[in-house]
Amino acid sequence: MKTFKLQTALAALSIVLLLPGLALAATPDAGLSTVDPCLVTCPAGDTDFLVVVRDAGGAVIAGSVVEVDFCNCAGPQLCSPGGSGSCPDGTQDIAILATNSAGEALFHLAEGGDGNGALVDIRADGVLLAQRTIKPMDTNGDFVADTSDFSYSNLSNDYNCDGAVNFSDFAIFGNHGSFSHSCTGPVDTAPRTWGSVKALW
Fold first, then answer.
1. Which residues contact 148 (CB under 8 A, 6 or more apart)?
2. d(CA 67, CA 105)
3. Which domains, from first to last, does the chain contain?
């Protein structure tokens, strides 16, 4: 009887595994996924932040839901209309994108606010892939990147993440701060239910 039950269970499992519609979803692997080493943001949303999601076998995962979570920052960070997810303080400071067929989620984060030195969580399907320190063009939190935001003594201006602020960083900043890049912000901070999902930006 036990042998029959075991054979029946194995047969049922084989059928499940052979049905494409019932295939188990791949789980993101933090060690094999790739997250850009520098999280550089600008109120104009004209910087790139790339996340590539892979599973434990190294295969890319299409359709994975990637979150860049600014909830550790004090006050609102993302420019209006904000991200797709809400933080406990009511700010819409979680940017969400689904990966494409190459497993890539390319973010253009329009961000201001006082986020200097804060750690941002990057997750895929709820799995923490990495944390990154914000390197904002807007370092004084007025949602405008201008010449007042750059200082060689401020490590928040280390835009190539080499541990020092030098002319290379100033050159990167010049493409944004020299043109006073700005945004409509901050976003509305009316109290909302934790976890509410807003329209994709």
1. 140
2. 9
3. 23-179 (2.60.40)
The fraction of the chain above a pLDDT of 90, given in percent, is: 53
Q: Kindly report the number of other CB atoms within 10 A of residue 181's CB atom.
A: 23
Instruction: Quickly list DSSP for 119-170.
Output: EEEEEETTEEEEEEEEEES--SSSSEE-GGG--TT-GGG-TT-SSS--HHHH
Distances (CA, A) of 145 to 70, 156, 174: 19, 13, 10
Structure tokens, 114: 């006082």
Q: Model pTM? A: 0.77
pLDDT tens sequence across 27-57:
999 999 999 999 999 999 999 999 999 999 9
